Amino acid sequence: DAGVTQSPTHLIKTRGQQVTLRCSPISGHKSVSWYQQVLGQGPQFIFQYYEKEERGRGNFPDRFSARQFPNYSSELNVNALLLGDSALYLCASSLWGPNNEQFFGPGTRLTVL
Amino acid sequence: QQPVQSPQAVILREGEDAVINCSSSKALYSVHWYRQKHGEAPVFLMILLKGGEQKGHDKISASFNEKKQQSSLYLTASQLSYSGTYFCGTEGVDTGNQFYFGTGTSLTVIP
User: Fold this and answer.
1) Domain tally for chain A?
2) Do A104 and B43 touch (CB under 8 A)?
3) I want to staple A46 with a disulfide (CB 3.0 to 4.6 A). Which of A26, A34, B76, B77 is the partner?
């Protein structure tokens, strides 16, 4: 079975631009969570979606938004990019929310110049 | 609300034991443990739900003291493959489905 997939693998943007990251969960998983991991730190929770609804939001500005589609895939959007948004963005899927075992995708490495 | 882990880093020789601690200031519903190797995504190790249970598989086990909001991960007879950064992850009783990873513990096992 395929694991969690994310696209693209790497991305380079300039300040002020907008970016969309994509995630496909493991088949049968209905929950997707997004995390930001800055080099040398632990992942920081951004969003959790379950059954297409936002169920949890971390302490990130409104420039960050996400959605989940009927097939349970998800997109993370970041507007007005700042240098500080440079990070590895991880997607994790689980049966229901982060209180189940979370399976992480390989991540998208975003660099903002 | 980020859990604090200790120690920050530890170096072990193969076969030695280690304990990694995770402490939260919030009442916890569950504690997860993950291991992340350099350049890779975190990998789930185990989950402990409130109730003070202890879990384990192979030579890695963990305990959860919900009254103290603390969890400990025990690695016995460490192997080279145990090297990586260990994170606890917590979901609070009243944190609105937010999930917090701890500060991380870098573990290096040397021959």
Assistant:
1) 1
2) yes
3) A34
Query: What domains can be seen in chain B, in order of their start residue?
Result: 4-110 (2.60.40.10)
> For the residues of chain B, what is the DSSP string, one character each?
---EEE-SEEEEETT--EEEEEE-SS-EEEEEEEEE-TTS--EEEEEEETTT-EEEETTEEEEEETTTTEEEEEE-S--GGG-EEEEEEEEETTSTT-EEE---EEEEEE-
Residue B96 sits at the chain A interface (C-beta within 8 Å): yes
Cross-chain Cβ contact A98/B91 below 8 Å: yes
**Residue A97, Cβ neighbours under 10 Å: how many?**
19
User: A-chain residues within 8 Å CB-CB of B32?
Assistant: 98, 101-102
Q: Is B101 at the interface with chain A, CB within 8 A?
A: yes
Quick: pLDDT tens for B43-65: 999 888 876 566 666 789 999 88
Q: Judge whether A103 is closer than 8 Å to chain B, CB to CB.
A: yes
Chain B positions touching A98 (Cβ under 8 A) are: 32, 89, 91, 97, 99
Task: Give residue-wise pLDDT tens across range B13-52.
Answer: 999 999 999 999 888 888 999 999 998 999 999 888 876 5
First vs last Cα of chain A: how many Å apart? Answer: 37
